[in-house]
Design a protein that fits this description.
There is one protein chain. This protein is mainly beta. Among the domains are: 148 residues, no CATH class; 49 residues, no CATH class. Helices cover 11% and strands 31% of the residues. It contains 5 helices and 25 strands. The strands form 8 sheets. Strands 1, 4, 5, 6, 7, 8, 10 and 19 form an 8-stranded mixed β-sheet that branches. It is elongated. The termini are far apart. It is found in: Membrane. It holds the Pfam family EGF_CA. It is a single-pass membrane protein.
């Protein structure tokens, strides 16, 4: 089975997701649980030998439930998996991106430059009146959009637009895809942080700032949640953006520290995939588990009830595969219900019946 590596920031209602026991395998004598979440290698907690460099996580057990944290502690891991061929992890960042009096801010989370993580496949959301947001990674513009409020009713118009199931069109809020290209001008970019610049273009900036602008980098569809946009676009009371958990996708690869297929994909039943910056691994077809540790990819018993295949005959499990056949003295297709009919009558028996019949007729 394919393997995955994923990190994402999630909605305020999403609790920490559990990792399948088949993939929740860490290094010997290392803690791999934080609350209801499991931490499979190359991720890890505690001692340096428990994780590949750069994949260290922290479990805050003083909170209830415990929180699994990444980077400087402002990113909470919500989904963590190494299955299904994905190379992402889901984390949440609390609130919008803070900007100073000049309209400048940064989203980072303490992710190390040239480390395993990059911020990717997200969306820029801007809520505010007569303001423009530009998102940059170094000197490269990644996204931007403008939000206009006419006669002070922009936020109400935006709420009506979203309630109708449409995207922010620029009245009170706007949204724009973030262009993600890991290779710019022949060089690999390190998307570990974004710089944000807000510029107000209305004639009365003090009036425009009566409803503070909020800028978010978030996963797709987050802002379409009714509870989210109602909170941010409310006009009857101040919004509580600081209490909102914003989901973000992070992509990862195993990089640096002598990383190569032979020492990254340690299971003998694993595949190695070379990426733009490093490597990821997956278990071969017919196996599941953790390809990053020795003997981590385990054979799938397809013959077990609720397994990965349908066999209505005799199922024989094999290493990395299985064999499905009709029971003895039957034939047909054992992969469909009733595909192996009752035993065929013996040919000699049939012959004897026919011969007897003809002998009776001759009397």
């Amino acid at each position: 089975m394919a393997a995955a590596a994923v990190a994402m920031l999630t909605s305020p209602l999403l609790a920490g997701a559990e990792v399948s026991p088949a993939e929740a395998q860490g290094m010997p004598n290392c803690d791999i649980t934080c609350g209801n979440m499991s931490v499979p290698y190359p991720f890890g907690m505690g001692l340096a030998r428990c994780y590949w460099p750069g994949f260290n996580l922290t479990c805050n057990r003083t909170s209830n439930p415990p929180r699994l944290l990444l980077g400087d502690g402002t990113l909470q891991v919500q989904e963590l998996s190494i299955s299904n061929g994905s190379t992402f992890v889901s984390v949440t960042h609390m609130g919008d991106i803070e900007v100073d009096s000049n309209g400048e801010g940064k989203l980072g989370g303490g992710l190390m430059t040239n480390g395993p993580f990059t911020i990717s496949y997200n969306q820029l959301i801007l809520v505010g009146c007569n303001v423009q947001a530009t998102l940059k990674n170094g000197n490269v513009t990644m996204s931007g959009c403008s939000s206009v409020c006419k006669n002070g009713d922009g936020l109400a118009q935006a709420r009506s637009t979203l309630e109708a199931g449409m995207q922010c069109s620029g009245n009170g809020c706007c949204q724009s895809d973030i262009v993600f290209n890991p290779e710019v001008a022949g060089m690999l970019s390190n998307n570990t942080s974004y710089d944000v610049q807000l510029k107000w273009f209305g004639w009365n900036r003090s009036a425009d700032q009566a409803s503070p602008a909020h800028v978010f980098v978030t996963s797709y569809d987050w802002f379409s949640s009714t509870a989210i946009f109602h909170e941010l676009l409310r006009t009857d009371a101040p919004e509580s953006a600081d209490a909102i958990q914003v989901p973000i996708w992070l992509r990862w690869e195993v990089v640096g520290h002598g990383a190569e297929c032979s020492n990254v994909c340690k299971s003998k039943h694993s595949n190695c995939i070379k990426g733009k910056r490093g490597y990821t691994c997956s278990c071969k077809h017919g196996y599941q588990g953790n390809p990053y540790i020795t003997d981590g990819c385990k054979d799938i018993d397809e013959c077990k009830e609720g397994g990965y295949t349908k066999c209505y005959g005799d199922c024989i499990n094999l290493n990395g595969s299985y064999h499905c056949r009709c029971p003895p003295e039957t034939h047909g297709d054992p992969t469909i219900p009733g595909g192996c009919p009752s035993p065929v009558p013996d040919k000699q028996y049939c012959c004897n019946l026919i011969c007897s019949y003809y002998r009776d007729e001759s009397k």
